[in-house]
Amino acid sequence: MATRYRFRVEEFERAFQGVPHVELLRGEVYQMSPIGPKHFYAVMRMDHRLREALGPKAVVAVQSPLRLFEDSEPEPDLLVLKPPLERYQDRLPTREDVLLLVEVADTSLEFDREVKLPLYAEAGIPEVWLVNLKENLLEVYRDPRGGRYREIRLLSPEEEVSPTLLPEVSLRWA
After folding, report:
1. Which residues pair with 127 in a beta bridge?
2. pTM (2 decimals)?
C-alpha cells in the first residue's frame, strides 16, 4: 500500500526541490510518468505554434509550476499567461494569470481527465486544451463552473482552434 503525505505549497517546494516530475495536487504529492519522445515532441511543437501565433500578446511557459491553491501546485505542459514576462520576475504564476492551459497526454490521459481537469475547473482556469495523443484529438474544455467544465469540444488534427481569451489568434493544433 502506498503512503500518502499532506503538504502546503511552501513545505512541498522545500522537500521536493530538484526532484523531477512530482506535482502537489490537493495536498498530495504525485510522481508523474516520465516524459517519452512522443510527449516531448508534442509539447515542443505546441510551444512553437503558440509562441508563433501569440507573439507579444501572451507569455508561454513550458512545464512550469502554477500556484492554484495553498495545497496545489501542478506543472502543466504549457501555460499561456498574461504579459509582460517581467510580471513573473519575483513570483510564480497563479490562476489569475492563466489565459490558457495545455496538457499533453498519452500515458497520463485518464489522470489528466479525472484528477487535473476538475482541479483546473475548480480554480477557474478559463480554458484547458488536452492534447490526446492516444486518439490524436484535441479536447477543448471551457466555461468552468461547479468544479467542472461545461463546454467540451473534440477537434481533429485538421481543425483550427482559437483560445477564448485570445479570439484573434487561430492555429492548427497538430
Report:
1. 142
2. 0.86
